[in-house]
Structures are given as C-alpha cells and as structure tokens.
Amino acid sequence: MIKCPKCGKEYRDDAVFCTDCGIRLHEQYTAPNTDAGADSDQHTYTAPTGEAYHNSAPSVPGAPSDGRVLSMWDYFLMELVTKVPILRIVMYCVWGFSADTNENRKNWSRAQLIWLAVGIVFTVVGIALAALLAGTTTAIFSRISDYMHF
Q1: For the CA atoms of 69, 72, 78, 79, what is the dihedral angle to 10 degrees?
Q2: Angle formed at CA 40 by CA 34 and CA 43, multiple of 5 degrees
C-alpha cells in the first residue's frame, strides 16, 4: 500500500494517480548526470512535478440543477395528479417542457406525452377502420336483402 504525498489517502501499489487530488503517486525522478566524463549528447527526461490538471465538463448556463433521484412518494404523487384526465395533459406539458423541473420527471413526462400521442393515433386509425368496415358491411347487407323475399 502506498500513500498519496498530498492528501494521505492509501492506494494499492499499482495505482498511478490519486482519485481525490489527482497527483501522480509514483514519481520517478532521474537525477541529472553530473559526471564530467559522461556523454553530453545523452539527455534524460524528468517528469514535471506539480498537480495534475482536472478537465471538467463546462457548465451550461440555464441547465437544470435539480438532478436528484425522485423518491417513491414523488412518483406516487405524480401518478395521483395524472389520474385526472385534463390535468394529466396539462401537467405532462408543464413537467416536460419547464426549465426548472427535475430531469427524471421531465423525461418521464415527455415519454408519457409520446405514449399519449401514439394512443391518439391508434384510436383515430381504429375509428376510421371501424367506420369503413361499418359502411362496407351495410352496403353488403343491403344488397343481400334485395334478393331475399319473405
């Protein structure tokens, strides 16, 4: 086990960087060659000392900061509110397109709006097919009844 020279956190021997402060754990320093008879063309590289840079994602202005995980009660209340038909559509739109809404709630609301749109499309297609089938069936039975005399 080795310790970070900066923060003191312990790591396994094969660790390269400290996950807390980012400093390199195994610094290998090469002493400069001060031997007068040494070849002057041979250069050794010494790793720079200092802290490692931390590249973090840039912050986006206006991005929602409420990224917490929704609790069971949050989901319970969302389901309860959406049991009222008109209020359901209104709340899906408010939660789905508001800038200050929790990211989980926003994605859930958008998915529910998509399912609602799919349901409306299937309903319209189903009604159109039922009307077409009813018209065709009526025309067929009216022709058959012309041939039947009781």
Answers
A1: 140
A2: 80
CA distance 80 to 89: 13
Rounded to a whole number, what is the distance in angstroms from the first to the last CA of the chain? 103
> Read out DSSP for 65-115?
---PPP-HHHHHHHHHHTTSHHHHHHHHHHHHH-TTS-HHHHHHHHHHHHH
C-alpha distances in Å from residue 104, one per residue of 87, 95, 100, 107, 111: 20, 10, 12, 5, 11
- The confidence score (pLDDT) of residue 53 equals 60
CA distances from residue 76 to 51, 72, 104, 136 in whole angstroms, order as listed:
48, 6, 14, 47
Cα torsion angle, 85, 90, 93, 94, sign: negative
pLDDT tens-digit profile of 24-61? 877 643 445 555 555 555 667 666 666 656 666 555 45
* Alpha-carbon span 149 to 118, nearest angstrom: 48
